[in-house]
Design brief:
alpha+beta, Tumour Suppressor Smad4, six-stranded mixed sheet, six-stranded antiparallel sheet, FHA domain-containing protein
């Protein structure tokens, strides 16, 4: 199987998974009967075979020419592979598809990521081309396609429950309410201007009339945004927590991508058997720099993961 079918997490130690590894998740194993070698994906220790169903419960809909071919539940596997090989989890026989094209798996931070396996024709998510060898977050509603535009009729849609979908709903409702209030205020102010103009035309003493009666409660509402913001900031709302979590998940993936880029650059010479042996002193310099970068990124990563854990706790105990 391309994707391993087991429920045990990579790394049994509860804290060990947080440590950065000086190896890449993707490697090529040379075999006698295959000159290209076997592409091997080793899920990192921060990967997860499942997540909290209350937070994420996702599936993949396979659609071709507008027809739903199948729906595959994403659960209880350390990772899922799409490719042209029969043993892959998502098999797609198409000239655009590499033998092993991309993988998807959950993370211990309750997110879903996709990773292009240096495929020949590439992968796009929502029409954005993925850079090979980098992780990208996936969300409910995302559309995955293979290769160049119009070269493949098949798409893969992420569907199911995501607590982060509530964030969009909350933002939409707030935006609608705000637009409604602004529209009401504009109409009232227009009436005031018309009334003032009428009083001027008829030479009536304007001071005798209060043309701002309609605006009393709205002036109070719009003139005190800072006070309201300060009051609301003392209570963390669901939308605030979800927004924090989403940002932290992105920060985590960005830090991991930065780390793997540094590992790739530092170990390129030792992995390329066609290149002459690199200078021993140069190798020492690279390793020393990598160790310094590791300490720095590990510290940043720990801070992000601590914040993730804290916000998930807030999410569980918050009253909505």
């Amino acid at each position: 199987m391309c994707g391993k079918d087991h429920s045990e997490e990579a790394g049994s130690d509860k804290e060990d998974w947080k440590l950065l590894e000086e190896k890449l998740p993707l490697s090529i194993t040379k075999v006698a009967d295959d000159p290209k070698g076997h592409l091997v994906y080793n899920p990192p220790k921060w990967a997860s075979s499942s997540v909290d169903a209350k937070i994420l419960d996702l599936s993949v809909q396979i659609i071709s020419n507008g027809v739903l071919l199948d729906t595959v539940k994403l659960n209880f596997k350390s990772f899922y592979v799409l490719g042209s090989m029969d043993e892959c989890d998502f098999v797609y026989k198409n000239p655009q598809v590499s033998r092993k094209h991309f993988i998807m798996h959950y993370t211990r931070s309750n997110s879903l990521v996709i990773y292009d396996l240096n495929s020949k024709c590439g992968t796009t998510v929502n029409h954005m081309r993925l850079q090979p060898g980098k992780y990208y977050l996936l969300s409910a509603g995302d559309q995955i396609r293979i290769g160049k535009a119009r070269m493949s009729t098949r798409s893969y849609i992420i569907t199911g429950h995501s607590i982060f979908s509530d964030l969009e709903s909350t933002h939409d409702s707030k935006r609608t309410a705000k637009e409604s209030d602004i529209g009401k205020v504009k109409r009232i102010r227009k009436i005031e201007r018309e009334l003032e103009e009428e009083l001027r035309r008829t030479n009536v003493d304007e001071s005798y009339y209060d043309t701002n009666l309609y605006m009393d409660e709205y002036d109070e509402y719009f003139d005190a945004p800072k006070l309201k913001t300060k009051t609301k900031s003392t209570v963390l709302k669901k939308a605030d927590i979800l927004s924090n979590l989403l940002k932290l998940q992105r920060d985590e993936v960005d830090l991991l991508n930065n780390w793997y880029t540094l590992v790739n650059e530092a170990t390129q010479g030792s992995r390329d058997h066609n290149e002459p042996s690199i200078d021993v002193e140069l190798e020492k310099v690279r390793r020393s720099q990598l160790n310094q970068d590791k300490i720095k990124i590990q510290k940043q990563l720990n801070n992000v993961r601590d914040d993730l854990e804290h916000n998930f706790k807030l999410l569980r105990i918050a009253s909505f």
